[in-house]
Amino acid sequence: MVIPELLQLLERQAPAAPVQYQNENNSGALLAVHGAFCGAAVLTVLLRLYVRIFMLKSLGADDYLMVAAAICEIGVVICFVGESKAGGLGRHPALVSPDDFALFSHWRFFHSIIIMVGISLVKISIAFFLRRFVQGQVYRRFLMGCIVFLVAFTISCAGTLIFNCGTRVDANWNFALRANGQAKCFSNTTFTNIGIFNSSINIATDVLFALLPIPVVWKLQANLRTKLTLCFVLSLGMFACVSSIIKTVKQAHALQDPDWTYHDSFFMWNNIEFNIGILAASLPALRPLFVKILGGTARFTSNNSRSPGHYYDADGLAYGKSKTDKRSVRKPASQYYKFGSRQSTELEDLRRGAGTKLGGFTSTVTAGDDNSDKIMLEDEFHAVSTDTDNQWTASPPNGTITKTTTVRVSEF
């Protein structure tokens, strides 16, 4: 925001500017960067919805919040286009007429509110996402406290932006109201200090939500490679922290820079922080889609047409492999969803046939001479041996077994 006195000074200097300076316009480059980030973020959210709806058939509060954040991102890009059309974005302020600058400031007013709400929605979405995995009331209450704090912090920031000129909200873009004394607004110094304080809180919450998922993911029932991958993807939020720090440094000098709209550095980094947050929060949810695509590619390029199926929990993170796979099988989550497997035995079926409850197990299925691994037993009569003396805890009635199958179960 530029005070009227500075704007008048810039107007007086404008006629002396060289022709090349007058024709410079950086709005095309700025819009290209913002458009690319927006496209990547929105596409990621759409893929997330595809996985949740069509593959996992489960939508949570974090998904709805992320959709709202994506809508905010689209609104931010619309504001950037409006600012460019007004003639302020990417132009030297000295060459922008007062009327055009007022229109530019009007767009920037709504822009500031939308992106601030969007960043908070991303963090609240991550908090709801983590609450589904944490165990223990202390951790869950802590996350709920973070959600309450973020809501209150967002309302506070919005109030500062909207009412920094008191009840004359239109004074945020109508500078004549300030000049004739009809509105009294925060000075540039006060407004900058408030912004830096809010940005400091924003950096702290960025760091918190970038590191908080790591201990949660580490406790998931998944193999080490899966855990490391998820931790890396979720830690992309650290890049959002870096963007937030750079944005805060730019913010400290933005209102003193007479040429601040040409590069628009503060809002550039602010939007980068927003988009990286969306990407970091949404990429882990795409794991089932990546596995399905990579699995299809492997089947297409492999001579062996049989591929072990994968079972995912309702969030698409914890998973197990088909029992026909000779590799180790991790502990199952409460519910798994099957993708692309024709030959597999449900873990709960094996547990039901055992005489004692097993904390976790691996299984090896040995089939007949034709190397078929298809098990055809009635659901009520799965016979499982837990020792080496071939004593079965249950046996099916006559006529229900169509193939002799041996299942070896061992605890781990």
UniProtKB/TrEMBL annotation:
The keyword RNA-binding does not apply. One of its GO terms (cellular component) is membrane. It is found in: Membrane. It comes from the Eukaryota. Its main location: membrane. It is a multi-pass membrane protein. Residues 47-291 form the Rhodopsin domain. The chain crosses the membrane at residues 29-51, 63-83, 109-130, 142-163, 196-216, 228-246, 266-286. Keywords: Membrane, Transmembrane, Transmembrane helix. PANTHER family: INTEGRAL MEMBRANE PROTEIN, PTH11-LIKE INTEGRAL MEMBRANE PROTEIN (AFU_ORTHOLOGUE AFUA_5G11245). Belongs to the SAT4 family. This is Rhodopsin domain-containing protein. It comes from Cladophialophora yegresii CBS 114405.
